[in-house]
Amino acid sequence: MISDGFADRLRLDGTPLIGTLVSMDGRDSVDVLCRCGFDWLFLDLEHSSLSIGDAKAMLQVVGDRIPVLARVAANTPTDIHAALDIGCDGVIVPLVNSNADAKAAVKASKYPPDGARSVGIGRAHGYGSKFNEYLARANRETALIVQIEHREAVDNLGEILCVKGIDAVFIGPYDLSGSMGLLGQVTHEAVRAAIRQIRSQCDALGMPHGSFGMTASACEEAVRHGAKFVVVGTDAMHLYNGAKAQLNVLRGDR
Ligand code: 3PY
Ligand code: MG
């Protein structure tokens, strides 16, 4: 965990934090991405084959260079505790669709009295060497980000956002589009309208919001509309696009 890290920076009015999604198994790719200058990394434990052990090895490579947040596989104490105990700077919880889902995410993410996170002695706690220090700082310095990515969540947004302990909202345009019967049509007017609604309800409450975009221009759009953090593309897409562009030049099919 990094002091003045992700959670603190979300609360400030700084430049948006630019991250990318890590899904590939391997420590080298996170090392390369740190050297690119990203502000943070989004380790995807929901839609990848990365294990919690892989995630820990990646955190050990990143060290204190930049914050790393894990998108957990599911909104369960087991998933959330494991990601925080290995030293993630926060968790991104998918499919938070109701007040009950939001309360469950807070309960698992925050130590008492704010929640009921169970106490372990892991990498986050310096394997015991920073135990008391970590307990004292964790609730403030580890970010709980809930994903709003279903039409049900949009309908229930007011009762989700009022749950104390949520640090930010991450909009998932793709699942949102699917839940609206418009799978993948993230620029469809109805999906755009739902996203506008999410942003304006967050803005009204001073709740930071961010979004995923396949491309820089999708992320720029989010930033123009107040996103404080974005996730641009995935490690695999960056590898594919970079390699393919060079290949196309040499093959003459630019
Ligand atoms: C979505 O668009 O559904 C996402 O979860 C992006 O990460
Ligand atoms: Mg999603």
Description:
The mean pLDDT is 96. This protein is of the alpha/beta class and 254 residues long. It has an 8-stranded parallel barrel, surrounded by 8 helices. It starts with 5 loop residues before the first helix and ends with a helix. It has one domain: TIM Barrel, CATH 3.20.20.60. α2 packs parallel to α3 and α4 runs parallel beside α5. It has 12 helices and 8 strands. 46% of the residues lie in helices and 16% in strands. 3-hydroxypyruvic acid binds next to α9.
What is the string of helix and strand elements?
HEHEHEHEHHEHHEHHEHEH
Q: Shape, please?
A: globular
Number of domains: 1
Q: What is the CATH H-level superfamily?
A: Phosphoenolpyruvate-binding domains
Q: How many DSSP H or I helices?
A: 12
Radius of gyration: 18 Å
The CATH C-level name is: Alpha Beta
Structural class: alpha/beta
Largest sheet: 8 strands, parallel, barrel
Features:
12 helices; 254 residues; single chain; binds 3-hydroxypyruvic acid; 8 strands
What topology emerges from the helices and strands here?
Layout: H1 6-11, E1 17-22, H2 27-36, E2 40-44, H3 52-62, E3 68-71, H4 77-85, E4 90-93, H5 99-109, H6 131-141, E5 143-148, H7 151-155, H8 157-161, E6 168-171, H9 173-179, H10 189-205, E7 209-213, H11 216-224, E8 229-234, H12 235-251
Parallel strand pairs: 1-2, 1-8, 2-3, 3-4, 4-5, 5-6, 6-7, 7-8
Helix pairs in contact: 2-3, 4-5
The structure holds 3-hydroxypyruvic acid and magnesium ion.
3-hydroxypyruvic acid binds next to helix 9.
